[in-house]
Write a structure and sequence with these properties.
- This protein is of the alpha/beta class.
- It contains 7 helices and 4 strands.
- A 4-stranded parallel β-sheet has the order 1-2-3-4.
- 23% of the residues are buried.
- The mean pLDDT is 80.
């Protein structure tokens, strides 16, 4: 990676990433009463109902979700976390969203670090569900630990 970056003049890997083509597939799935029965683990919501908030960016990192200015402070309350959620991605996010909104994002949601506050601030804001094309593994696990259901290919 270092050699490839030196030759290219910018940070890059040693291989070329293929262009991604998104193909829309519409498919109907038959639903029966029997297929809707699932066991809900303790702490997870039985139902989620809310507005969808689209964050279309791929690789939305933990610093965008919860900024470094708050990470190592011991005096940050859940109320403050809710006010600064996504501050580095969209400074108006906290004001425009409300508890119950469902976040929908692109590939590799939460990339960058194992900063658990990125998930804690989503919970503080009242985000009950995160749907993404895929998740950074640490953030995926932290969502489950915080009892925030996630849906993606991770």
């Amino acid at each position: 990676m270092v050699a490839a970056s030196a030759v290219a003049g910018y940070i890059r890997g040693h291989f070329k990433v293929a262009e991604r083509t998104v193909e829309r597939v519409y498919k109907e799935f038959p639903v029966s009463a029997a297929s809707e029965r699932v066991e809900i683990l303790p702490g997870f919501p039985e139902r989620v109902k809310g507005r969808l908030v689209f964050l279309p960016q791929d690789n939305l990192n933990t610093d965008a979700i919860y900024g470094k200015d708050y990470t190592y402070r011991d005096d940050v309350t859940p109320e403050t976390m809710a006010k600064v959620v996504m501050e580095n991605y969209d400074p108006q996010f906290a004001a425009k969203t409300k508890a119950g909104d469902v976040v929908v994002s692109g590939f590799n949601f939460g990339t960058g670090s194992s900063r658990e506050q990125a998930v804690t601030c989503l919970k503080a804001k009242g985000i009950p569900l995160v749907i993404a094309a895929s998740f950074f593994a640490d953030v995926f696990a932290q969502c489950l630990q915080q009892r925030i259901p996630v849906r993606g290919s991770s």
